[in-house]
């Protein structure tokens, strides 16, 4: 297990230090994997073991941002993080990072008067792109960092060209962001006793052998129906061969308090769920997938490539639209699984070893950003080629 330990040590120091790799497009996980490969595949007999390790180790470590935190040392001065706008103009209470995530040394504020002293300003893209807020005034205080915060996909992120050489750190769902926090991630059970994120992680369960099929087959929750989306075209195809229960503005009403929890309860009655992203981009895998995973409905995904999903989940944990030449074949496969519990189990057996963590918007983002500011203090960073990188 020397490999595991080694990567863990490397991982700690690289979570915010992968700017150099950004342009080459290599993610933290790919580097992790390259490293594991180098160390385990030197002899032929190690190849199989190496491959298993490669899967296990890389999957284990990529989506585990909170445990990468080294113990915060007391002598480090606390930092002030200024929240420039409320994302989408919606007020949220400012979190207590220590109480929630045991991230110490962070003063969060939304008071613009703190600007001259702030160590960092976190700036949500939408408001400065649409002009509902201006960027902070220049010249900025020396050593202050501006953090670009964005959780929309490139298709829904406008005016990027205006922000070249403006920001110092990026914070997005992309694995190669300076501050990486995805919409959700798996926590292997052996970490649960260690990490602080346990409190927020939902343990997943493999259904018992005696388990009967779920009463309902296939659901889809869709709030923004647009005929121009690939997912709507796909749905039109699929519904010819299989019953799809559609919920949301364009379908049946969602349960009353339609927060994440009630969607998860709804999906708990279904065997499969259509986790179709509004656009297809690197690492753009949203709560649609993670809600299904939490609910134990096997996600049928449309988004980035299968290979990209496999950075976040075991290969059998999801069914990719690209796995089938046509919507008809996909429908056939789902109906076949329904009749063959043993085959269906292949898509569920992995669950016993994991919990799922869905970071809280935006409390966890602010606290994670603040921790990164503490860690990168004294360093100069500039985000160049923002547009090219985000679209890559
Ligand atoms: C809904 O989809 C349309 C078409 O892609 C897009 O222009 C719009 O921004 C989306 N709305 C939301 C709220 O995501
Ligand atoms: C932040 O970015 C600006 C604009 O590119 C740059 O002038 C400044 O030196 C950077 N500051 C730090 C602390 O990285």
TrEMBL record:
Enzyme Commission number(s): 2.4.1.-
Location(s), subcellular: Golgi apparatus membrane; Golgi apparatus, Golgi stack membrane
UniProt superkingdom: Eukaryota
Residue ranges of the TM segments: 44-62
Domain annotation Fucosyltransferase C-terminal: ranges: 214-389
Entry membrane topology: Single-pass type II membrane protein
SUPFAM superfamilies given in the database record: UDP-Glycosyltransferase/glycogen phosphorylase (SSF53756)
GO biological process: inflammatory response
Domain Fucosyltransferase N-terminal: from-to ranges: 78-184
Main enzyme class: transferase
Entry annotated with the keyword tRNA processing: no
GO CC, one annotated term: Golgi cisterna membrane
Reaction catalysis annotation: an alpha-Neu5Ac-(2->3)-beta-D-Gal-(1->4)-beta-D-GlcNAc-(1->3)-beta-D-Gal-(1->4)-beta-D-GlcNAc derivative + GDP-beta-L-fucose = an alpha-Neu5Ac-(2->3)-beta-D-Gal-(1->4)-beta-D-GlcNAc-(1->3)-beta-D-Gal-(1->4)-[alpha-L-Fuc-(1->3)]-beta-D-GlcNAc derivative + GDP + H(+); an N-acetyl-alpha-neuraminyl-(2->3)-beta-D-galactosyl-(1->4)-N-acetyl-beta-D-glucosaminyl derivative + GDP-beta-L-fucose = an alpha-Neu5Ac-(2->3)-beta-D-Gal-(1->4)-[alpha-L-Fuc-(1->3)]-beta-D-GlcNAc derivative + GDP + H(+); an alpha-Neu5Ac-(2->3)-beta-D-Gal-(1->4)-beta-D-GlcNAc6S derivative + GDP-beta-L-fucose = an alpha-Neu5Ac-(2->3)-beta-D-Gal-(1->4)-[alpha-L-Fuc-(1->3)]-beta-D-GlcNAc6S derivative + GDP + H(+); a beta-D-galactosyl-(1->4)-N-acetyl-beta-D-glucosaminyl derivative + GDP-beta-L-fucose = a beta-D-galactosyl-(1->4)-[alpha-L-fucosyl-(1->3)]-N-acetyl-beta-D-glucosaminyl derivative + GDP + H(+)
Pathway connected to this protein: Protein modification; protein glycosylation
InterPro entries per UniProt: Glyco_tran_10_C (IPR055270), Glyco_tran_10_N (IPR031481), Glyco_trans_10 (IPR001503), GT10-like_C_sf (IPR038577)
Keyword Glycoprotein recorded: yes
Protein family: Belongs to the glycosyltransferase 10 family.
Function, in words: Catalyzes alpha(1->3) linkage of fucosyl moiety transferred from GDP-beta-L-fucose to N-acetyl glucosamine (GlcNAc) within type 2 lactosamine (LacNAc, Gal-beta(1->4)GlcNAc) glycan attached to N- or O-linked glycoproteins. Robustly fucosylates nonsialylated distal LacNAc unit of the polylactosamine chain to form Lewis X antigen (CD15), a glycan determinant known to mediate important cellular functions in development and immunity.
Protein name: Fucosyltransferase
Organism: Dicentrarchus labrax (European seabass)
